[in-house]
Structure formats: structure tokens, C-alpha cells
Amino acid sequence: MATSLIVPLAYISVLVTSLAIFSRVYRRRKAAAVKSWEPWFPKHPARDTYISLVTASQPDPSSSTPNQVPLSILKSALLVRATADVKRIWRIRDDKMALASLHNRGLVGDDTMARFAAAEKELEAEIVDVVSEANTFRQGWGQMIFQTATEMAQAERTREVVLNIPRVKVMEDRKLAHRRKYVPGPAVSHAATPVNTPAKPNAAAAITMAAANAITPSRQSPAPSLPDVEASPAEIKSGGSSGASTPAK
Amino acid sequence: MPPGMGPPMQIPVNPAMQTLLDSLPHHPVPIFLANVQIPNSQPPQINTIAVCPEHKQSICEACGVDFNGLNYMHQFLRGAPDEAIPPPPNVQPPPQRAEMIKNMKEQGNTAFKEGKFPIAIQHYSKSADMALSRAPWELAAVSREETAIALCNRSAAFAIAGAWQNALADAEAVVALKRPWGKGHFRKARALLGLERLEDARQAIIDGLQFEPNDDVSPHFLHSSGSR
After folding, report:
1. What InterPro entries does UniProt report for this protein, alphabetically (chain B) (predicted)?
2. CATH homologous superfamily for B96-226?
3. What's the pTM?
4. Choice between A7 and A209, residue whose per-residue pLDDT is larger
């Protein structure tokens, strides 16, 4: 007889069970899709270094050795981590503008935008983490650490430009040698003859050495091609016109 | 790139963010702190540097670690007491360093005027080195200016001495450091002219004129180069 209580109860339970199963399967698929995305940044070595150092410096109750990691190392690691985060902030800002315009034109899909949004959230969480870690060293440092890190990141950019100079010089040497094969100009002797720059210039001192090596050959090259060097009056630093020192042809 | 960023100071840590933080992957990094003695120091000082445990290198391809940044920063923080933190960038550093850098540059200028170009180049190089080795937490714009000026003068010295590739490399660096500066482009054009690359030299002059339209040295240079 249909008037028993079993039928509606059975109906409701079957309904609820099927909906529960469906929702669990659907959410698991969605979560798997999220996890299968490639993260925006490959990895964050500065963060890993810092966390490894902090875990290494935790006082170990089982062992008797005291804390081996000096505080200055931890602070340096935190500063390096903050600098890496500042560089990521810059990249995210640039990428955001680029991605917005690309997305407007439809060249970039929604999953890329979702990946980017996830990366932004992670970076925010990372910044908050750095600030709180900085506050554990000294109360109030968290406010300043990102200003310090910004300055450090810019200083690193300057240093990269300067350390790139020897590489540019080697490339220019190669270009000139290549050009000389096809365009033997009268300027062959007044350009610096092949200079022996050190192979791996890594310190700025090497730039000085390269400089010293570079100009000695040209000073020794035959006189008639260098009338401009000896004859011209020394230029004042404030960039006087180089009309007087153009090489004679 | 905007130079400064307001740090998100007062973000409350909500549980969602906390879980996100905990879910970020962490790969433990093999690190080993070696104590090496600094050579030529009296009394002998011990320096702690971070190296990889197996090869004892600070940059190790096999282990995939790069501790140079960490060690470089540690040089500066090593002597400080435990409570010390790097000062914020708006605190002015003592001016001795700026004085020394300027003195080096002036010495370079005097050597330049006397025609002793190798010495001038050495002085300018030293000035650039000193500008680069300031403490990293100081204002970066200052060291950038000083480096740009030193490199610009060095490029001029190279150009007069005839080492055009060096002059070009230095001028490229100056332009990369300070793009809106007309003199940097002028030096680049001068070096390119020495290398017989006339079209590139004209382009460099035009770039410079974009930033400083009131310059009157550069157009003259452009005409004299165009007459060849």
C-alpha cells in the first residue's frame, strides 16, 4: 500500500544520496583541474632557503647542540626572500597589464586568467608571510622591509647592467671582426686592435683590467692613423663638441 | 617600473589566506653553513657562508642552489648586533662614501685633462666600483646616478684613446641606466661613429634629441657626421 511512510522516505533518501554523490564527484574534478594548472612562477628558491634555515635553527629538544644558525644569516635570508618577492611584484604588475589587453582581444583564455589570479593571491599571501616573519625579528620591521627590499632590487638591477659591460664588449669585438672581413675601412688601425679581455670577467676589477689591456694596443699602433688622439686638445668632461677629435680621413 | 610600492601593511590574516599559505609548496633546500677564515685579517675573523653540503660551493649547478645573494647580504649584516636591522631608505647614510666617489671622479677628470687616459680610466673604474659596493639598502637612485656619471666619463676617455668597443659598451650601459639623459646617447653616437657605423650613430643622436630637444651640441655633431 502506498500510504506507508517508507515510500516518501525512500524517495528523499535516494534523492539526497544521488545529489551528494554528484556534488562530491563534481568538486573533486574541479579541484583536480585547479591543481593540474602549472603555477605561474616555477619556484621560489629564496623562500625555500629561508624556511629551511628557520627549520634548521629551531631548537631541537632531543639534541643537545645549541642553535647553530646565526641570526644574521636568517635576516639576510629574509631580505633575499623579500627582494625576490619585490621582483615578482614587478613582474606580476607588468603581466597584469599585458594579460588584460590580451584577454580583451580574446587571445588568452579564461584558464590563463584564472592561473594569473591564483598567482596574485599566492604572492599576496607570501608578502603577508614575509611581513609577519620580519616582525618576529623586530617589532615594526615588517613595515620597512619592503621599502628596503625595493631599494635592494633596484640596486641589483644596476649591478647587473654594469656586470654586463664586459659581455657587451666581447660582442662588439666580434661584430667588428666580422665587419672587417667585408668592409676593410681606413679605420682599421685606429680601432682598437684585438684586445685580450679576460675570459670570465666577473668582478668590476676585471673591467679595469680589461680597460687597461684595451687601450695599450691602440697607443702602440702606428702614429699616422692616430693624429686625432695626440693633436686634439683634451676635452672637458662636460662633453665639448667632438668636432675637433673626429678621426682624419 | 614604478620605483616605490606601498607595502600592504595592515592586511589581516584571515583563515583562507592562512590555508593558502600553508598550501604553498615548499621544497627543502640543502644548505650548510661553513665557517671560513677571512684572509689577511688581524685578529683573524671567521665568516659564515652558506654552501651546498656535498660540494661546498656557494653556487652549485648539481644541487641547483645559488647562495651568492645570501652571502653578499651577509657580508653587510655580519658585524651588526642581533637587534640591528637595515635602516629604511629615507635615512641618509654618512656622506663619506659620496665624498670618496666624487673625489675619485675628480681625480679622473684631472687625469683626463692632462691627457693621461689609462690613469683616468682607472680612476673612473674605481669610482664606479665604489658606487656599486655601497650597502644595498641605501637609496638605489643615488648609486645609479654615480655609476652612470662615472661610466659616461669613462666612455669619453675610451673614445679619445681610440678603444671604440669599450666606449660603446660603457655608453650602452649608461643608456640602460639613465635613458632620459642626452649625454649618454651622445657618447653612444660618438663610439658608434668611431666604429664606422654611421646609421646607428644617427639613430642614437635622434634618440638623445628626443629626450633633450634643446641640446645644440648633438645636431652639430649629426651634421658633421652626415657630411662624410
Report:
1. TPR-like_helical_dom_sf
2. Tetratricopeptide repeat domain (1.25.40.10)
3. 0.72
4. A7
